[in-house]
Structure formats: structure tokens, C-alpha cells
What does this fold into?
Amino acid sequence: MQDIWLVVVTFLNSNLTDLSSYLFDANKRIYSVYLISAVLMAFYVFYKTKPSANFLKFLFPKRVWLAKTAKQDYILFFSNKFIKSLLIAPLLISMTPIAIGFSDILENTFGFHGFISTSATTVALTFTLVLFLFDDFSRFLLHFLLHKIPFLWSFHQVHHSAKVLTPMTIYRSHPIENLLYALRMTVAQGLAVGLCYYLFGPTLKMVDILGANLFIFVFNVLGSNLRHSHIWFTWPSWLESWLISPAQHQIHHSSDPKHFDANFGTALAIWDKWVGSLIKSNTVAKPKNLRLGVAGASDDLHASIFKLYWQPFADSARCIKSIFDKRIARLSKVMKQEN
It folds into this structure.
């Protein structure tokens, strides 16, 4: 019994220690530098709009930070970390076999003509850019599928059920979605490494800032934490054709039907532009009236942490059952016609 208790305590302590390090890890969205840059950008909005409240009240309104769904976000930040360590981590695969396998496929398909001879700096910058592009596109693709495939939407709906947005809303997600994103990252990194290994050889080095990919670090500094916030931070229209601004992501969370399935991208807007899902911030006439959440969902759909975890399984099961019922009905109709 004491051994079991020791294991539990060690597990809890390890995860709590890991969570406390998020403020000091440049690969985490709530890294202190990213939060500071978000505060500076928020001050720019405050100065520009000159609201009646003082800056602290403008930055931390009780209606947002103490809202019911915001409190759920704080709980999910902790509970999902434990679930990931206990249930998801053992399911994850290494990106190494994917990288080797993809490199072999490229060599078998196109042959091997020797590694490209160029400077170490060029190789590093190219590898860093390829990693970023593969990561960003794969995020867009999975996000797109989470919205378009009904049984996947059942799980992604947890994230969209937030009625208010704070930087902690990034952690408002179902464990199944977390698993899909973790697998996505493994595959994307494996393909990027495999491609660059085929082109440049085994000596690959990423250009990083404090351990984070150069391009991802820049994206996070440029207001990533305002994406999930009540602060309407826009970019020039021409720039929003290339990069997703914080305001554009807030539009993605809108419950207004005219904003449905828009702005799936994380950093780059070019993917949305290609599929016709890009909406710019200047199309929203009154951003203060932007309503958030899942349109048509009852207030008690995600009324508790238990429902946030359990309801998606029930909803996805109904979606899958509906698909099978339709196929069986179609098959029965065909068989009757043949008879």
C-alpha cells in the first residue's frame, strides 16, 4: 500500500513540477516572454481605445477571468496534464522511424544523387523553415478535419464551448483531441526530418531561440496569447492575408453562423486563403458584440467537467451510429430493388 501511495505522490509531484515550468519554457504558449509581449500589445489597444476602466481592469475583467467556462479552463489545464501523462504518452510513437521511412521512400522513388552541398547556415535555416511549414500546415489540416467530420467535431466542440477567452483557453481541449494533435506533431516532424535528411544528410540543426523554433518563437511573441482573449488586436488587412491575427482567431470562436468554419490556420493564413475559409478582422463591424461558444448548444451541454470529458464520447457514438444506419438503410434499399 505504501508503494502505491509513493507512486501516486511521485506522479503528482512530477506533473505539477512540469506544469510550473511552463512559464519558463519557450515551447509553451504561456511562456513568460510571450505573456509579457501580450500585455504590451494589450496596452497599445488600451491606449488607442481609451476605455473608461484603468489598465488592470481592462486587462483582467471579472466577467472574463471569473466566468464559468474560464474556471473550467483552469481545471482542464491541470487535469489534462495528468491524463496525458497517464493515458496518452504511452500511445505516442517516435518520429524517428517516420523520418527514416520517408527518407527511404524518397530515395527509392527519386534515387539518391548525393546530398546538396551548401553552407551550414543555409541548411539550418531551410530545415527550420521546413519544420515550421510542416507543423503549421498539419495543424491547419487537422483543425479543418475536426470541424468537418461530425464525430471529430464532437471532441473539438469542447474547445469551442468556451463562452469567454483567456490565454488558458488553449488548454481547453478533450484528451482525444490532444492525442490527435500529439500524433500529428510526430508525423509532421518525422516527414520534415525525413525530407531534409534526404536533401542535406544527417547533420541537421534547427535555428532556435531559447529552444523554440525561430519562426514559432516570433509568432508567439507577436500576440499568440491575445488569440484567446477579450482584447481585439488586429493587423493590417494585407498582413491578415498572410498571417492569422489574434482578432481573426477570435472570429473563429464566434457563434455567429456567418463566421462558422473560418480561419482554421494557426500562424499562416495562406492555407485558409487556398480553401476559401479566410475572414479578415475588418469584416466585423462591432467586435465588442462578438458572441462566443457553440451555436445552438444548450447551456448545460458542457455544464460540468464530467460532461466536458464524457459528452463527446456519447455524441461521437451517435454520429458513428447514424452513419452506419444510413449505410444499412441504403444497402437494404438496393437489395429490395434488385429483388
User: Anything to note?
Assistant: DSSP finds 13 helices and two strands in the chain.
